Amino acid sequence: MEINVHDRQVEIKGNIKTLENYMTIKEVVQSMVDRGADSITFIIEDSLSMTSSVIGYLMKLVNVDRIHIHMYIGDDRLIDLMEELSLVQVFGVKKLRG
Predict the structure, then answer these.
(1) What residues have CB less than 8 Å from 47, skipping those under 6 apart?
(2) What span, in angstroms and rounded, lies between the C-alpha atoms of 85 and 78?
(3) Residue 19 and which of 27, 50, 58, 91 are 20 to 30 A apart at CA?
(4) DSSP 61
(5) Is residue 49 within 8 Å of 42, Cβ to Cβ?
(6) CA nearest 90: which of 34, 20, 42?
(7) Prediction pTM value
């Protein structure tokens, strides 16, 4: 997994699948929140899944820290997962357009 940050946008390339991936995402996003970000956009180009630890952390951001999250997802399988978990509205999920 590769992660790049531009202002309040987090771009993730590759699969989100390991504990190390979770720790990296959490560190990057938490530093953004600590600097005052109240809205974060994720661009997830090609991950087909997302670990429960990442989903749980993002849920905490939305429900406890009141951070607005928007996700642009490239892989339909990850969009399907978000739909199955009823997270499309919570995370503002949209299909990433090429």
Answers:
(1) 1, 12, 14, 15, 16, 17, 73, 75, 78
(2) 11
(3) 91
(4) H
(5) no
(6) 42
(7) 0.94
* CB of 78 closer than 8 Å to CB of 44: yes
Q: Which residues contact 31 (CB under 8 A, 6 or more apart)?
A: none
Q: Tell me, what amino acid is at 97?
A: R
SS3 93: strand
Please report the pLDDT score of residue 98 as a whole number: 66
Instruction: Give the position of tokens 């180009």.
Output: 45
Domains of the chain, first to last: 2-95 (3.30.750.24)
- By CB atoms closer than 10 A (0-12, 13-18, 19+), residue 37 is middle
- What does the pLDDT look like over 45-90, one tens digit per residue? 999 999 999 999 999 999 999 999 999 999 999 999 999 999 999 9
Are β-strands 39-44 and 2-6 bridged in parallel, bridged antiparallel, or unpaired? unpaired
